[in-house]
Structure formats: structure tokens, C-alpha cells
Design brief:
The protein is mostly helical. It contains ten helices and no strands.
């Protein structure tokens, strides 16, 4: 723990997001051992990660944004509200654009119409997971940047817990990419490659988030709130609907536990 605290904020953000990416790769590596994984386990992890991300969106991102607005002399509700709304709208419009322009990505032929549809669905899955990992990496980076600029409610422990929660929900995401690709006929190696590649954007976004938080302090409340809004949109639009299809009770239980864990760690260690 001490060695991590001694690192520069940029290295802290990079290390934390490399961890979240590695968990994605770990989930994708299931393709080497299984064709399918028990959905109850994956859905529980998705629910738990959603709970952590929901709690973190307030304690690690939105609340620090409100406090910093007070320090900078801004309205304590206007900029956080705008940032939160912008983050949520970003995810919503990104999903809409993907749905609109996804048709025709895979050429359809008379031989294997169903196979082409499956390939298209798999490619869209890779793109969707990759897209949603960008604000997650950004959120971790901004959280560490908030610590660096001295926001009272921000802490290294809270930022690390946020990275842990994102990492936990990345595990089933990695598996959700690699396993379908394997079922579509790709080799295990290629399926793993595409699965882990969906998370490689997180370290990049994490470093960008830290640098932006440190160098543009006046806009940090917006970045914090934007990350919070994007995470809530990902939870509401992707994680919970996907996890609740078959195991609603397990998902809800995981959501509650994840929220409680993040709340306790943030308050106790923050």
C-alpha cells in the first residue's frame, strides 16, 4: 500500500487501470477452459460491480465535484448537474449511434445469413464493451487526480476501491466478449485477444483522466460529474439489464452488497 501511495498520481492512475484491464483479460481467458460459464456467477459479479460503481459515482466522483465547486466559488449544483447529465447522454448517444450505423458491418450473403448476423452481433459486443470502458478508465483517472489536487472528500483508498469495483465487473465483461466469439468459430487465441482488447482503452483513458484533473483544475468538477453520469448510465443501460435477464434476485443481492462495500470503505478509509 505504501509503495502505491508513494507513486505519482499519473502512475497511480495507470497502475489502477492496468489492473482493471488485466481483470478483463482474466475474464477473457476463460475461453481457454470453458465454452460456457455459469450465468449465476457472472450475473452476481455484474450486480456486485454495478453496486460498487453506483456508490462510487457519488462518494468518489459526484460528492467531490460538489465540494470542489464550493472551493472554486462555483454553484454547487449547476456544474455537477451539467457534467452528470453530459456523461449520461454521452453513453446514451453512443449506444444509439452504434445501433444506427451497425447495419452492414458484416456483408450478408445467401450462404450463411444467420452466421453473418451472429458475427455482426459479436463485433457490436466488442465495440460496445470497448466504448463503455473509456468512461470507466476516465473515472478512475479523475478519482486519483482529485486526490492529487487536494479535494477533502477524495482519497487514494476511495479511488482504489473504485478501480476494484470496475475491475470486478470487467471480469464477466471479458468473458462475455471472448466466449461468444469462440462459439462463432474463432480460435481460442483470437477470441481471447479480442476479449482482452476491449479493456485496453482503460489505461489510456485513466492517464488522460489524471492529467486532465491535475492540469485543468477549474474544470475538474465537470470531469468528476461527467464520469459519475457515464458510470450510472452504463450501470442502468448495460450491467443491470444484462445481469437481470435470468437471475434477478442474485443480481439485486450483488448490487446491494457492492453498494454497501463501497460505502463502508469510502467512509471508513476516506
Amino acid at each position: 500500500m505504501e509503495w502505491f501511495i508513494s507513486l505519482s498520481p499519473v502512475l497511480q492512475g495507470l497502475t489502477a487501470t492496468i489492473f482493471t484491464w488485466s481483470v478483463t483479460a482474466l475474464g477473457a481467458a476463460l475461453v481457454f477452459f470453458f465454452k460456457n460459464v455459469d450465468r449465476k456467477i457472472l450475473n452476481s459479479m455484474l450486480g456486485f460491480g454495478a453496486g460498487v460503481m453506483t456508490a462510487a459515482s457519488f462518494w468518489s466522483l459526484l460528492n467531490p465535484a460538489i465540494e470542489l465547486c464550493g472551493e472554486l466559488g462555483y454553484s454547487q449544483f449547476l456544474l455537477p448537474a451539467i457534467g452528470f447529465f453530459a456523461g449520461g447522454v454521452f453513453i446514451i448517444f453512443a449506444d444509439m449511434l452504434m445501433d444506427k450505423y451497425s447495419y452492414g458491418i458484416i456483408p450478408v450473403n445467401n450462404k450463411s445469413l444467420e452466421k453473418n448476423k451472429s458475427y455482426k452481433k459479436s463485433i457490436l459486443l466488442v465495440l460496445a464493451v470497448t466504448l463503455h470502458n473509456i468512461p470507466e478508465g476516465l473515472a478512475v483517472g479523475v478519482a486519483f487526480g482529485g486526490v492529487a489536487v487536494g479535494i477533502p472528500s477524495a482519497s487514494v483508498a476511495a479511488a482504489m476501491t473504485l478501480a476494484l469495483g470496475i475491475g470486478l465487473q470487467n471480469f464477466p465483461e471479458g468473458a462475455a466478449v471472448s466466449l461468444p466469439l469462440r462459439r462463432e468459430g474463432l480460435s481460442r487465441a483470437k477470441s481471447f485477444f479480442y476479449g482482452q482488447a476491449s479493456g485496453i482503452v482503460e489505461p489510456i483513458a485513466g492517464v488522460v483522466g489524471v492529467i486532465a484533473a491535475i492540469t485543468i483544475r477549474s474544470m475538474l468538477p465537470f470531469f468528476l460529474a461527467f464520469s459519475a453520469g457515464a458510470m450510472i448510465a452504463v450501470v442502468g443501460a448495460e450491467l443491470l439489464p444484462e445481469a437481470s435477464i435470468e437471475n434477478k434476485k442474485l443480481t439485486t443481492f450483488g448490487l446491494i452488497l457492492g453498494f454497501i462495500l463501497m460505502m463502508v470503505l469510502d467512509v471508513a478509509l476516506g
